[in-house]
């Protein structure tokens, strides 16, 4: 009897609560929905931070002991993560490749050191004088590898190997292909040096040396 009695009470309480909860107005529904969204965002943020930490560790652990120590020092002094730096390299590489093909000197000047900019500018001028146009299609960036890192006085330098797949060809003023092939994908390895004054408030890194094969 006691069990049946308490079960009846429990059912009655549940029934009353259920009826009361059923009266939640629209404003309360919005609050509940907002709380659920915030909770979901917090969970996603937690997962993202964990993933970022794993990527940072992966990048740093790929380096030899000496390079890792110097590169980590650079990251700390510039207040960025390894993943942020590598993603910045990818973005800069893509922007520079596209800007060189489209003769966008303004973008190149923003991303290149003065010496490297002059070399790119000269090549663009020669191309224009010859009435030729470079067509570049960056298919993918296959690999970004940190080769070495250095801090000298207030300058930080990081040498990067970038392996990408590209289609590159040149057309003349009549639209005829005079160099390269429209349907040929080439794997290109670039060695670029990124440099920054670590005492400067300017967050930008500049490409100070380039080579490719």
What are its keywords?
213 residues, alpha+beta, Nuclear Transport Factor 2, Chain: A, 5 strands, 53% helix, globular
Structural write-up:
- The protein is of the alpha+beta class and 213 residues long.
- It folds into two domains: 52 residues, no CATH class; 148 residues, Nuclear Transport Factor 2, Chain: A, CATH 3.10.450.240.
- The protein contains six helices and five strands; from the N terminus they run ααααααβββββ.
- Strands 1, 2, 3, 4 and 5 form a five-stranded antiparallel sheet that branches.
- The longest helix is centred in the N-terminal third of the chain and has 36 residues.
- The termini are far apart.
- The N terminus is likely disordered.
How would you summarize what this structure contains?
With about 210 residues, this protein is α+β, with helices and mostly antiparallel strands. The chain contains 6 helices and 5 strands. The chain has helices at about 1-20, 25-60, 65-80, 80-100, 105-110, 115-130; strands at about 135-150, 155-170, 175-180, 185-195, 205-210.
Give the CATH topology of the largest domain: Nuclear Transport Factor 2, Chain: A
Q: What order do the helices and strands follow?
A: HHHHHHEEEEE
- Tell me, rounded to a whole number, the average pLDDT: 85
Count of folded domains: 2
Silhouette? globular
Largest sheet: 5 strands, antiparallel
Which class best fits the helix and strand makeup? Answer: alpha+beta
Query: How many individual β-strands?
Result: 5
Helicity level: 40-55%
Indicate the CATH class of the largest domain: Alpha Beta
Kindly, what is the distance between the CA atoms of the first and last residues, rounded to a whole number of angstroms? 89 Å
Low-confidence stretches: 1-7
Give the radius of gyration. Answer: 29 Å
If classified by CATH, what would the architecture of the largest domain be? Answer: Roll
Number of helices: 6
Work out the strand percent: 25-35%
């Amino acid at each position: 009897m006691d069990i049946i009695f308490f079960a009846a009470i429990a059912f009655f309480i549940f029934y009353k609560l259920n009826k009361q909860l059923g009266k939640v107005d629209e404003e309360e529904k919005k609050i509940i929905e907002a709380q659920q969204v915030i909770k979901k965002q917090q969970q996603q943020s937690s997962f993202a931070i964990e993933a970022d930490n794993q990527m940072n560790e992966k990048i740093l652990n790929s380096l030899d002991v000496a390079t890792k120590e110097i590169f980590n020092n650079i990251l700390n002094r510039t207040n960025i993560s390894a993943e942020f730096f590598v993603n910045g390299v990818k973005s800069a590489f893509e922007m520079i490749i596209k800007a060189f093909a489209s003769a966008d000197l303004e973008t190149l000047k923003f991303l290149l050191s003065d010496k490297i900019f002059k070399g790119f500018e000269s090549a663009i001028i020669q191309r224009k004088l010859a009435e030729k146009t470079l067509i570049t299609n960056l298919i993918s960036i296959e690999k970004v590898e940190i080769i070495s890192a250095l801090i000298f006085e207030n300058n930080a330098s990081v040498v990067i190997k970038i392996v990408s797949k590209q289609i590159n060809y040149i057309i003349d003023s009549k639209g005829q292909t005079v160099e390269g092939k429209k349907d040929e994908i080439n794997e290109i390895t670039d060695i670029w040096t990124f440099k920054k004054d670590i005492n400067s408030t300017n967050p930008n890194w500049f490409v100070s040396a380039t080579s490719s094969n």
